[in-house]
Amino acid sequence: MEGMPLSMGSLRTLPWYVAGSQVLGVACVVITGVWMGHYRGGYAWDGSAQFNNHPLCMVLGLVFLYGDAVLVYRVFRNETKRSVKILHALLHMMALVISIVGLVAVFDFHSSAKISHMYSLHSWCGMLTFVLFVLQWLLGLGFFLFPWASAQLRSWYLPLHVFFGLLLLAMSVGSCLLGITEKLLFSIMESYIMFTGEGVLANTLGLLLVCFGVVVGYVVTREDFRRPPNPEEEALSVHFKTLSEGEIPSSP
Amino acid sequence: MEGMPLSMGSLRTLPWYVAGSQVLGVACVVITGVWMGHYRGGYAWDGSAQFNNHPLCMVLGLVFLYGDAVLVYRVFRNETKRSVKILHALLHMMALVISIVGLVAVFDFHSSAKISHMYSLHSWCGMLTFVLFVLQWLLGLGFFLFPWASAQLRSWYLPLHVFFGLLLLAMSVGSCLLGITEKLLFSIMESYIMFTGEGVLANTLGLLLVCFGVVVGYVVTREDFRRPPNPEEEALSVHFKTLSEGEIPSSP
């Protein structure tokens, strides 16, 4: 590496990427809200409108809040690692609670309408994503937030936690896109082909979800956006040079 | 890092991951072939069977061959970088040609059947993936295979090439899953909900495609699976520590 001047220069672009991710994330939540609210009959906790809570909760929880939980290690560069870890866990907890509400909404709706559960590729991928997310969250708590795991175990698990973290973001976005396609074909199969407003809006939502995932993934994996080394992390020997929650090792 | 003993030990697992990826990749191609061949009326270059070439070509080209092109840097660890680059470019060229056949098949089928082009989220995501793939392939040729680009330009572009390479694998898999969902809802919407053989087979194909992408992504991003440094690369100053085509820098 040519060293600090390049890193310092490129760090100036970080806020722009973060701001871009937030604009994209908010746009996704708003468009989902408008789609379900304006085109699909609004929100309720019974009848066919109960379903409409599902897309909104999943986009808000498992995409937007999940993505922001991943970003905190790049945004709060100079806070203590412990504070950032707690924020990371809290945002993931909010994502978990909101996505549980979203899942209850769709299972309740299916039961009331006598529709089978879990028959579609969207449901298989979405449920796999949710189960892995819960597992990842519990393992993250156990390994990194509470003092149960040894430093060696932590350093073994960290690259896996980071890999699965980004994988789950991709799977969340992918599951949303499958859900969008399903919903459009169930609701407007005849008019979808004619580039109607609802179809174009939902397709645009799909592309914006991909863009959100791409920007978050880019910020998290870009080498010169990493957090500077800190003594707490050094002491824990949680060193790795690959896709990383945090630090560049100060020594090999 | 604790150093060589750990790396040497973990390298023994690399062939298992690579073998696993090949089993998954072949299974995806075979299941797609069986789905279209057995359940959807087989293959032809006219009539409704012309469509059936599309899924087979896209899974074979933009997923299986694309994934294998990404893997060559881990599989051929001790060949010269130049040979591996040529193999990487050739596999991508095969992926490109086969995916063009797949695209011609679906556009031709749509034209014959008087169906609009490019109205669905699957088509938007799939076309975006294909266009970015062509761009990435051309830039890869220009920057890395021919001697036009300076070492500085190459080292600037390499992390982007690697990031977009993995992103495109994820987008290819995601586009296939959207296509599976579309095809099932167009063909068997009534019976899909009853867990019929075709629906379960196609859902299983979707999960296997995700697994293929995950294993390839894991092998390529795992730190101790990287290629050992080599003098050609050193001379080009193509050094980087992030998600990487190749080397760990021998000096910071």
From TrEMBL, chains A, B:
Q: Which InterPro entries does this entry report, sorted A to Z? A: CYB561/CYBRD1-like, Cyt_b561/ferric_Rdtase_TM
The record's catalysed reaction(s) read: monodehydro-L-ascorbate radical(out) + L-ascorbate(in) = monodehydro-L-ascorbate radical(in) + L-ascorbate(out); Fe(3+)(out) + L-ascorbate(in) = monodehydro-L-ascorbate radical(in) + Fe(2+)(out) + H(+)
**Cofactor(s) needed:** heme b
Alphabetized, the UniProt keywords read: Cytoplasmic vesicle, Electron transport, Heme, Iron, Membrane, Metal-binding, Translocase, Transmembrane, Transmembrane helix, Transport
Tell me where in or outside the cell this protein is found: Cytoplasmic vesicle, Secretory vesicle, Chromaffin granule membrane
Q: Which residues form the Cytochrome b561 domain?
A: 20-221
GO cellular component labels = chromaffin granule membrane; lysosomal membrane
Q: How does it sit in the membrane?
A: Multi-pass membrane protein
Q: Which residues span the membrane? A: 14-36, 56-76, 88-107, 127-146, 158-180, 200-220
Give the GO molecular function terms. Answer: metal ion binding; transmembrane ascorbate ferrireductase activity
Q: What does this protein do?
A: Transmembrane reductase that uses ascorbate as an electron donor in the cytoplasm and transfers electrons across membranes to reduce monodehydro-L-ascorbate radical in the lumen of secretory vesicles. It is therefore involved the regeneration and homeostasis within secretory vesicles of ascorbate which in turn provides reducing equivalents needed to support the activity of intravesicular enzymes.
Summarize the subunit comment.
Homodimer.
Identification of the protein by name: Transmembrane ascorbate-dependent reductase CYB561
Which gene name does the record give?
Answer: LOC109105107
